[in-house]
Amino acid sequence: MRDQDPNPVLGALAGALGGVAGAWTMVRFNHAIGGGSSRAGDAHPHRRVSAQPNDTDATFSDEPGSMQAASAIAEPFVGRPLRENEKEVGGPVVHYLFSAVMGALYGAAAEVQPSAAAGAGIPFGTAVWVAADEIGMPLAGFASDPRNYPLSRHAAALGSHIVFGVTVEAVRRLLRGNPAIRPA
Description:
globular, mainly alpha, about 60% helix
């Protein structure tokens, strides 16, 4: 696949698939490092007293930002905040859609500017962490000020986003090849 011409649309599709895979992988990673698990029968698996990742988007907050975002997005359409069971569906949908969109943007960028794919996805994952977790979620009101969280939570979130970025790049590269070695 290395000799194909750059195609931002195909790059975006490959990146979107990578984004979905990356979202799934980062949840698994957070459960591995946080000791969390998907416990059958737990009525509120996303609510944790200790610092363990939730089952929706693997963040460490009391209520995942993706569930808060789903409720905020849905409220104008349904005329009320989402109920708990609706958030448990909407949260993962938001998480996977956001990840797919981020992956699509990355995949298209890698087609147009091969240097965007440098670093095996680590710079991309780091950028998503800074933009989404450290800046976007607090600005949207879905997380506290980043200074209110211990360094361990920031490190875990950064690690999970690096796993996300590496996964997105691995899937994108599997489907589209390495843009840096395409013929001019």
